[in-house]
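Continuing the series of single-chain predictions for the mutant panel. This is the parent chain; the variants come on the following pages.
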Amino acid sequence: MSKQKKPIKTSTKKKASPTKKTTSTAKKKPTAKTSSTKKTTTAATKKTTTKKAPTKKKTTTTKAATKTTTVKKTITKKVVKKKATAKAAKVEGPLEFYLKAGEIAIKVKELLRSKVKVGASVLEVCEAGESKIKELGGLWAFPLNISINNVAAHYSAQPEDELVIQKGDIVKVDCGVHVDGYVADTAFTVSFGQDHKDIIKASEEATKAAVDLIRPGMTTDRIGTAIDDIIRSYGYRPIRELSGHQLDQNLLHGPITIPNVKGTKGIRLEEGQAFAIETFATSGTGRLIKGDIRCYIFQLNPFNIPLRLESAKRARKVILANYRYFPFTTRWIAKELPIPSTKVALNYLANKAQIKRYPVLSDIKDSIISQSEHTVYLTGNSRVVTTQPNQ
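Parent structure:
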């Protein structure tokens, strides 16, 4: 607070100056008159001083009051501003961002369900879903995955992809959205064949059981056991190498995983953590086959080395500008560079460990796989499912 200035006192001697001049002039006149003039002057001076002093005090007090009012107004504004800022910070916490991403993912899933049908181009479905994410104000947490039959994950349409959904296919659609780095990861399965209802139900029920169980204080091994038991109760196997995963800002795969099988070491979960619960049921071995060299999804590694290949330099520049934290696909880079150059550049960058590969994941030939996934955020002694309506 500013100190109030003290009122300025008027000096009688200073104000008496004009009176002295009058007295000096009066000396030329008779003494008797001079004496009378002095008395009159003194009286007038006193009268003048008495009148002026209160006026100045009154003015000073008004100024002080005005300053006090201004200070009070300023303080009030600052307090209101601080309260508003605190309220805004509270509203825009992690859960709110997870919910925003989830709302977008829910709407995108509705669109994708209408697009995924017999005769549909996988490339067109991917492009439609990814465009919708941007239209709704989100960004891609990873390329849209369309994995068919024995393919479990990581198939995203490549440039000029000619793959078409056919009658008899079982199709997994995995969609990832982020808002300010906070992710909604969700997946569903659609069947265009016979006898696929049970396998789809197996993964859906396993995911539901995990969502019902998960909360602060729960351990990951108990969730894995529940998932394993439910999938096997339908006569199928969970895929051991695939699991749910922790989420965080600008982090798609955190250090804690949610297993799909029993017999794993348990980790106790805590409030404020977010997870993608992701279950797979297969009619095959329950193990991923090796040797599938197809790879259309990559992620930047956080270190740079000198590069000689010019196309690799250009590709890395595009990646750094647009896909620093989350996975990207060949198709996206090919929108900035020629397709042949893109494929050569990404292969070169992967061999130099500048980017990480996410190869296509499959079980044995002629097996079928279903997938179900939701994102949850742990609160208090419960959880919020961000990728389900009305949660």
